[in-house]
Amino acid sequence: MSNTSDSEPENLTRKLDDLSLNPTTTSTTTTPPNNTPQQQPFHHHHAAAGGGLFGFGDFGAQQGQGYQPYEEELLPPPPPPPPDFIMGGGDQQGIVAFDVTSKFRAAAGVTALELGELVKDGFFSLFESVGALEIMDPKMDSGCLAPGESLDEDYDVTKVLSPGEVIGIIDQMFCLEMAWYQGYPLSQTLLTNVYIDRMLEPEPMVLGDADFIRGKAVGEGETMHVVLRAYCLGVVKCCWYINDRIKFEHYYEEEDFVTNTYHRSLLDSFELDEINEELMAARRLVHSVRHTIGDQLAQALGFRLELRTAFLRAIELSVLRSNPDSLSLPWTQMEAVWEMIYKSRHLGTPVPEAFSTKIQRRLASTMPPRPIVKLSTEETYKHFKKLFADGIDVLNVLNYHDSQSLLQNFVMTFQSQKPQPLVYIRTLLQSFLFKDMIILGKLSIRHVIDDDLSLVVLPASKLLDPANDLVEAPHHWRYALAHQMETFRQRAAQSYLDIFRAFCQNRCRIRRTLCHSIQDWETVQLDAEQIDQLLQHQIEETPLVYPPTGDEGGGVGPTYSLPLSSWAYLYKLRLMEWIVQLGFELEIYAPDELGGMYWYLSELARSRARLVDRISFFTKHREAGQQAASPSAGQEAAFNKSRQYLYQTSLDAAITWEMADALSNLYAALGRLGLVVAPPRPYSTDEMRYDVRMKPFAAIGMPELPSWEVYRAATDRRQVETGRLLDDASLSLEQASRGLEVMERLSEKDSFSVGCFERWVGGVKGQTVAVDRAAVVVEVLKRRLEERGEDKKGDKELGLKVEIGKAVEGGHEWWVVPTIEEIDEA
Predict the structure, then answer these.
(1) Residue ranges under compositional bias (Low complexity) (predicted)?
(2) What is the torsion angle, in degrees rounded to the nearest 10, for the CA atoms of residue 385, residue 390, residue 395 and residue 397?
(3) pLDDT by residue (tens digit) across 490-526?
């Protein structure tokens, strides 16, 4: 439809016929009321070709002249005008509309517009165009109704419910609640429940108003209403607590969770004790009518109310950060009750009409209507079961043993589970770690950093002696040590804590955050080198020759231990390794890029192994000096613990580089044999893709990023025969297998996995599975090359089919081992 215009000549005749015009006015859109005396309207055959209003000349002067018809009058008469629209319910004539469908079709015809062309008016903005698309589109227009459909839901919340129907409604709310935990908005989950909607709108001022039957006392015939109301109160209060917890921690709404409540109050003004009292009263009521409704139904309702009570109790206790054994009691209770709820699910009677998308029309949202997210009962059962298990597991972080058990193993292994813990559990972990900047509710940031420095580079060192803080004389050497160490702590603290916080995010966000963190650690390392130089003079450190004479590069000259910069460099290297390894887990690299990235990972692991070897050299020298001075039991324990950590880290680095070397050689051989073929990429080159993959490391000074030429030569290894590549891969896998055997024999304490030993062992076993599968692939290739020769290429000539996807089942996500299948030649 379109508005008429005074400048359109083809519409002039109809305008003069339809509109009453006063020659003394210029109004063209309104007509006085019918009961107002009017002059006779001009008829079009009285008009002359002169000027004047709408092309009229002087009427009196034209009466004697001959009539000259317009060209338009010679055309067929126009169709009758459409009925007038009355705007606003008044008696004023509105804008006249007419059908322009034929004109639009003619303008958009094949002869007028080519395929792909678009006519756009400069004043017709994107906002207006999107708004126009929404009108009468059921997918975009929340007010678009189907024939016979009402605007609001027709469900009667006052009708009497049977116990089975209440169980059915509660079980459906379980599904919607879990969908909300997984990141879907409340508008598509719990707020589609008619009972919850009536309870929250209008906002209740007292708890008695929080009812879907306002102003009506509950009688004997409405027992199930009391039960359902109490459960709804518990659900909404749980949502408020969880929503509030997540909002105060680091999360990403577009990736993890939607905290929007659409201007609905989630009972935030009511105390938890009031909600618990309603739940307890409902449980007592169910118990009192068990003879009427039957023991089975009474137990099923009681289990559901008990679960909600325990959930609120678990949330309430989580702020304490005290004894994990006491905090785990409600989680353990929920785990047991959930099994009973799942077994009694058959007692429920579904009530789908109690959930409606029409409620979305009344929510404060700019989003178009969306369907209700429906998880199956089996999916909901599995997710809730894992939620309760993770809730128990995350409490173990409160049992602090050492910094490496906390970061390396507990946080990392906990977050690497498949599926990953829900965002509420991850924010709960953040709360335990960082709330009020008190680590685990009992440790200062300085305590954790000093613990880590003592474990890695400074066991029993005077640099970490608390007695340094007691000296106030500015010229005393202890005062200088305390000042320089405090400067370093303040510089490194945020970067150190950011590692913990990064690993509390989803897997994609972890990698993205670490890419930014390594640049910060580069600066921390440079600052630490300056502080190391100042500390050398304060403690009168004697430089040593490293590597020792006789080793590779030995005899270069004496060097200092540089403990602080070595600590920062070690963390920077680990961050770089994690970035590359997460790239394999997240399937960022194409199959033909895997060999090159595994080669770069092996280079990073070698750098870490060399650094750990350097740290161990200076630590042993300091320990020898301490032995000469009869160290205390605490000092000996510190050196033993540091020695064990450096051994475990060196072993891990060796396993990483051997496995990475093996897979790099394996993929180089597969590419050379034509079993892994790069897809056509007309808009990029290998060097451009290399720059993209290495962009996070381009600004890092040490280790220096290899050039494209070095990377290509190391990845292709054209000077090495294919058989030799496979032999090297086989040898590397043997070395990695031996290292993993040693790793599996480590105890919980020696592996620094206190509180997460089972997950740590599972990771080691996963790497062992990856090594065994890779060894099988290498042996199959070697045997086929011996049978058919190295000049054969492609799957048909070699009779092999290679598939590259995610990590093998039971393996490890960081080691992508191809699967190989022998093709039947018949």
Answers:
(1) 19-41
(2) 160
(3) 999 999 999 999 999 999 999 999 999 999 999 999 9
Strand partners, 3: 97
Reference 174, options 196, 197, 190; nearest CA is 190
Radius of gyration of the chain (CA): 38
Q: How far apart are CA 762 and CA 770, in angstroms?
A: 12
- The number of residues making up the chain comes to 826
Task: DSSP for 460-483, please give it.
Answer: T-GGG-GGGGG---TTSHHHHHHH
- Residue position matching structure tokens 């009402």: 150
Beta bridge partners of 819: 803
Q: Which residues are registered as beta bridge partners of 370? A: none
Which of 519, 514, 396, 408 lies closest to 456, judged by CA? 408
Contacts of 342 (CB under 8 A, 6+ apart): 381
446 touches 439 (CB < 8 A): no
What are the structure tokens assigned to 40, written together? 């006779």
Residue among 545, 527, 428, 443 at smallest CA distance from 484: 527
Q: Tell me what the mean pLDDT of segment 583-598 comes to.
A: 93
CA-to-CA distance for 99 and 87, rounded, in angstroms?
A: 19
> Residues 65-81: pLDDT tens digits?
444 555 545 566 666 66
Rounded Cα gap, residues 414 and 411, in angstroms: 5
Predicted model pTM: 0.81
Between 661 and 27, where is the model more confident?
661
- C-alpha 560/C-alpha 743 separation (Å) is 32
Is 60 exceeded by the pLDDT of residue 418?
A: yes
Percentage, residues of the chain above pLDDT 70: 83
| Number of other residues whose CB lies within 10 A of the CB of residue 647 | 15
The answer for residues whose C-beta is within 8 angstroms of residue 341's C-beta and 6 or more apart is 171, 174, 300, 303, 304, 307
